[in-house]
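Homework help thread (please don't just give me the answer)

Our assignment gives two proteins as sequence + structure token strings and asks us to describe the second one. The first is just a warm-up. Here they are:
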Amino acid sequence: MNAVHPLSSTPEPDLLDALHTQHQRLNAALEATPRQEWRNQYHPDLSPMGWHYAHCHFIEAVWLQERILGNAPCQQHDWHTLYFPELSPKWRRGGRLPSAERLLTWGRECQERHRRLLREDPQVRQHPLLEQDYLVGFLAQHHAMHLESLEQVRWWAQLTRPTPPVPVPTRPRTTTWPTTDWAWIPGGEASVGSDAVITFDNERSPHPVTLEPYAIRSHPVSNAEIIAFVESGGYAPEEHWGPDGEAWLERTGVSAPLGWWRLRDGTRVQTLPDGTHTLEPEAPAVGLSWFEANAYARWANARLPHEHEWEHAARSGILRDTGHVWEWCANTFQPYPCFRPFPYDEYSAPWFDGAHYVLRGGSAWSDPLLKRPTMRNFFTPDKRHVFSGFRLARSL
């Protein structure tokens, strides 16, 4: 295990309370899942809902029981080959899960036992990983990410229905904005990254960067703007897609964001985890790959922002409506200077491969724990199910 990073003295939220909240959300998620669905794998990229629930509790047990207390692995020796992702192909996971009732019972027992250890056990409390409750926050965020993955599974479950259900009314919104709301930002030195306790290793080591002057949209690209792109033939394999985007487009046959439908009367709707909604023109568009975001930006005579530009604008209070969709950035996921893997080597380092692109901001399905200016999400450019949209930037 790597040495513990020096931690910031910045006050943090009560992380034990945050972990308890995630436990309650996990229980509610599994309880609300129809028993005929919780083992199902709806997409090759996504695990069954029941696996996400079990994996979260297993990871807690690994950190607390095995790595901190030094206990032998649980007698259920096959748990490691089921709940460690690298040892368990997604397609095999559903059939190996215990019943939902057993999972819920075991999960609640784990939750109570683990919270007691984190609150009271001297050996646990004195471990370097518990400095300022770092491990508690790490586990709470880990669970929050898997809960968002559960919503992605629900999305695909909705999308497998043979016909779209009757659309529910448009969800109310409290903000409106023009579609040309550009903010001009002078170049110069900016700071990115954070040393706060509740950050992941790829965010740590705050450091200065030099930015050229740029403009960035105050709001994400909206459904209305994507409709205009669709209706103008933007999904035709033209120059704005670039070679890789054009190859992806021709391979997939995509012609609109994920979950978009058109009813017989011409109404455009989108299926989301909670059902099918009439498209609201001003709402941030969601269900877009990096290829689609980049093609739209080029078609609109703009570009995607670099993640440093995005973070600087977010910290400056310029960005509006963040946290509705994860926002694709132009650059691939790379380590910051002085990066050190923590609390284990494989959390970020394997994904510095030049094939994963950065997303920022969080989505409507993200827990508030994950919605901070420095949070770096990352996926390959073909992924559309990760509640992703984008905003535009331009060089000045």
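The one we have to describe:
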Amino acid sequence: MRRQLWLLGLLLAACTTNAKPLLDDFDTNGLDMTKWTTAQIKPDQMRPVIPGRCTPQAIEIITLLTDSEGSDCPKDEPMCQRAEIRTAKQYWPKYGDEIWYAFSFRILGDIPRTGSSRTVIGQWKEPADDSPFLAQRFDNGVFHITVEDKGVRRVVALAEGNIDDVQSVQRKLNTIKSPAIVAQALREIRPLLQGKQSLLTDDTNVAKNLNVAPSKLVETLRPLAFVSEPEKYVGKADIELTSPLTPQLPDPSKGWIDLVYRILPGRTDNTVGPKRKAEIDIWANGTLVAEVRGNLGNPLTTEEQVNSGLYFKFGTYRARVPGTFRFQFDEFTQRSRPITELRPCPPR
């Protein structure tokens, strides 16, 4: 009964939004340039691929070692590999509108288990954001989804490991007094777990910050050892996560996965725009995997920001690593009314 009332509330809320729907099954030989922009991808990095998720064709984005400069890399990161496709601006919903997204994707090729150094494979940005407030990541071989509050990041779902253990670490990272030494400890945990010599030179101080015994330090930090930018996870974040009964994400390197997102932007400290906590609900392969509530993104201060909307990008954005990385994407839907068809077609 509670779930039925919740769905009814979503249906009523969705009726108040006017975002232009966007659908694409990528069955044409070329990318539909009325729906997408390609400022951050080169023509030879994308191609049609057969078969698609449900229909004959999907789109594939390829990242090679030779793509050392990518397209539109930041000045402070000249060696990035970037190949991303963005929704056309006419489809950007106004900030504060409730929007639903659905799509399918999988990953093929070389997927490093270590040294991946930040791999983003899908992201949403709001008007005041530098880093995405919501992102799909594939760091050190672990697929996971993150959200951010003013640049402080939290994992909200993952394909490998236990989300409850990750949440336990993240709660500790909310209250520490010396962020730099704890971030360094997180950075050094992964080599230590791989049997390399310990680099933790200040175990006692780090343990004190986390309020654990020094002998428990490695065990405490282990669940979050896969993240590639540990400094982003240290600090206060107003983010609440409700773990459902099945919080595990599927692994996109093992086949197509179907994701559905419900996104309602907001912050309680916005100067303009909705002054409420944001809401994000995520389904993977038809199963609810995360319910997120909190202050997401950065505070909005002008009406121009509110009207400029938020946008979605898919593809690959990472630091340069060896190998060929293939990202296949299909069955995209963006609309303001609820998406009840949580899987577009039977699994393959």
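TA reply:
I won't write it for you, but here's a hint about the kind of observation we're looking for: The radius of gyration is 20 Å.
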